[in-house]
Design brief:
By secondary structure, the protein is an alpha+beta fold. The chain has ten helices and five strands, in the order H-E-E-H-H-H-H-E-H-H-H-H-E-E-H. Strand 1 and strand 2 form a beta hairpin. The longest helix is centred in the last third of the chain and has 27 residues. The chain is elongated, with a radius of gyration of 26 Å.
Length: 271
C-alpha cells in the first residue's frame, strides 16, 4: 500500500457576498418557486440564487442586467440539457464519467468550504505569521538578472559563456526557460528575498551588486545563473494592509495539512 501526496488548490474568495432575492426565505420555497419554465421544466429560485452567488464571489457587481443574464443562461442551459436527454446522451459512457467527476469535484469543494468555516484563522495566528514574515523579509529588496536552465550541465555551459564575455541578457533571451523574465533579458522585478523561491533568497542577500553568483543555484524551477543588479531599502506593509492575504495563505496551509493528515490515515492503493 502506498500513500500519495495530495496538493489542494483552494478556491479564491470562498465566502463572498450573499445573493439577495425577494422570493420567500425558506429553502423549500426556493426549490419550488421558479424564475422561469422551459418546456414544463422549472428553473428554481434556489438554482438562480446559487448561480448569482457564484458570480458575485467571482467579482461581478449585482445588477438587474446581471440577474437577467443569469436567468437567460439558465434557461438556455436547461433547454440544451433537455435536447441531450432526448437523444439519450446521458447514457454515454464518457458523459456518465464526466458527471461522476463533476459530482466528486462539487463534494470536495463543499467539504473544503465547510472545513474552512469550522476552522477559521485566528488573529493570533495572523499576528504570528506577520512577525515571522517581518523576520524573513529583512530591510532590503533586490533586483536580479538570471538565466534559468533545466539542468546543471546547461547552467554551467551558460556560466562559462558569461565568463568568456557573453552578455547575460542575450543568453537569457536565448536559453532561459523562465517565461516571466526571458523577454526582459532575464531581468526580475524588484523583490524581497522572502518572496523568492528557495534558496534564491539566501543567495541573493549574500551577493555583491554587479557580480555573477559563482555557481548555478538549484531550485524547484531549475538551475539559475544570476547576478545581482541592485538593492534598495524595503519596509514590509503594515499588518492591517496585508491581513487578508495572510489569512488566505494561512487558511490554505491549514486546509492542506488537514487533508494530508486524513489522507495519511486512509487506505490508498495505487495500481
Amino acid at each position: 500500500m502506498k500513500k500519495t501526496k495530495v496538493i489542494v488548490v483552494m478556491l479564491a474568495s470562498l465566502f463572498g457576498p450573499q445573493a439577495v432575492w425577494s422570493a420567500p426565505k425558506g429553502a423549500a420555497d426556493k426549490l419550488t418557486t421558479e424564475v422561469a419554465r422551459v418546456n414544463d421544466e422549472g428553473v428554481s429560485v434556489a438554482l438562480f440564487e446559487l448561480a448569482l452567488k457564484d458570480q458575485l464571489q467571482a467579482g461581478a457587481q449585482d445588477s438587474a442586467a446581471l440577474r437577467d443574464s443569469i436567468r437567460t443562461q439558465l434557461v438556455l442551459q436547461t433547454f440544451v440539457a433537455q435536447q441531450a436527454l432526448k437523444q439519450r446522451l446521458d447514457k454515454g459512457s464518457d458523459v456518465q464519467l464526466r458527471i461522476e467527476l463533476a459530482r466528486k469535484s462539487v463534494l470536495a469543494t463543499a467539504w473544503q468550504q465547510q472545513w474552512l468555516q469550522d476552522n477559521p484563522v485566528s488573529d493570533a495566528e495572523v499576528q504570528s505569521e506577520y512577525a515571522a514574515l517581518v523576520t524573513r523579509s529583512g530591510d532590503k529588496e533586490y533586483q536580479i538578472r538570471q538565466v534559468v536552465l533545466r539542468d546543471e550541465t546547461s547552467a554551467r555551459l551558460v556560466l562559462d559563456q558569461l565568463k568568456g564575455g557573453k552578455k547575460l541578457d542575450e543568453l537569457a533571451r536565448t536559453y532561459s526557460i523562465d517565461a516571466a523574465s526571458k523577454a526582459d533579458g532575464g531581468l526580475v522585478a524588484w523583490v524581497n528575498p522572502a518572496a523568492l523561491i528557495a534558496p534564491l533568497g539566501e543567495v541573493v542577500v549574500k551577493a555583491k551588486i554587479g557580480q555573477l553568483v559563482a555557481d548555478p543555484v538549484k531550485t524547484a524551477a531549475g538551475w539559475h545563473v544570476l547576478e545581482l543588479v541592485g538593492e534598495r531599502p524595503f519596509t514590509l506593509p503594515p499588518l492591517a494592509q496585508i491581513k487578508p492575504q495572510l489569512q488566505q495563505s494561512l487558511a490554505q496551509r491549514k486546509l492542506e495539512a488537514a487533508i494530508q493528515a486524513d489522507v495519511n490515515k486512509a487506505k490508498i492503493e495505487l495500481r
